[in-house]
Amino acid sequence: MKKAQLRVIGVIGFSALTLAMVMTRVRSDSPSQLNGYQPAVEGQEQSFDQNKKIAELAKQISGKEDKPAGEVFKNVQMLKAVPAGRLLKIMELGYSKSLGVNCAHCHVVDQWDKDDKPTKQITREMIKMAAAINNDYLKNIKNLKSPNPIVNCTTCHRGQTKPALNMP
Ligand code: HEC
Ligand code: HEC
């Protein structure tokens, strides 16, 4: 087999493995770890079907999943370089699930590019804050257990919009 072919197979294998790891982690989240996960639904959003919306969006970007989100979507400022398909995974697992909410917490549903809800801009600031913790602080603390220690939304939020200050 040619070197290039082997490399392609390697990349596909690696992506599948990463996805499998993400899926396993999601499934193994026990209800207790999610702190009584309750999607924050209110008023007209009551009947909101998140899985259906994600499927719709996935269909809209079909064929463009690997293109940078900045080229595929209209108003992506922080996650420009992330592949468009992965942006949807981040919305579903990184943001909604981490905070214990659904898309409507940060978006006017179906107007995904609009910045009407303050929570969407707060999220951009949170991305900056987490990056500062990771790059400016954690990296410079010696003798930690992980070679690349990081925090993400889940580290603090753990299924809640307001991170806990006390042990339950
Ligand atoms: C905690 C807040 C939050 C939640 C929850 C959330 N999003 Fe987002 N979403 C954002 C932010 C912030 C951006 C813009 C990111 C940037 O500027 O890089 C965004 C961008 C998007 C975009 C790109 C829109 C465009 O054209 O610019 C789509 C599509 C999207 N979100 C869909 C979803 C879906 C579907 C869900 C539910 C599964 C969801 N989001 C949940 C905060 C959120
Ligand atoms: C270092 C801890 C920490 C990290 C990491 C973190 N947050 Fe936060 N977040 C907070 C705190 C503290 C608040 C303020 C809660 C309050 O109002 O008292 C907050 C508030 C928020 C709010 C407003 C909640 C609401 O509904 O009013 C959103 C949205 C949010 N965070 C999203 C995110 C997202 C998305 C990430 C990952 C990119 C993230 N946060 C990472 C600590 C964190």
Architecture blueprint of SSEs:
Blueprint: H1 3-28, H2 50-60, H3 69-72, H4 84-99, H5 118-137, H6 153-157
A few lines on this structure:
The protein is mainly alpha-helical and 168 residues long. The protein has helices at 3-28, 50-60, 69-72, 84-99, 118-137, 153-157. The protein is built from 6 helices and no strands.
Tags for this model:
168 residues; Photosynthetic Reaction Center, subunit C, domain 2; 6 helices; globular; binds heme C; mainly alpha
Report on the architecture of this protein.
The chain is mainly alpha-helical. It has a single domain (3-157), classed as Photosynthetic Reaction Center, subunit C, domain 2 (Orthogonal Bundle). The protein has six helices and no strands. The chain has helices at 3-28, 50-60, 69-72, 84-99, 118-137, 153-157. The radius of gyration is 18 Å and the shape is globular. The model is unreliable at 16-45 (pLDDT under 50). Bound molecules: heme C (HEC) (2 copies). The site of one heme C has 17 residues, from helix 4, helix 5 and helix 6. Residues 95, 99, 119, 122-123, 126-127, 130, 151-153, 155-157, 161-163 line the site of one heme C (HEC).
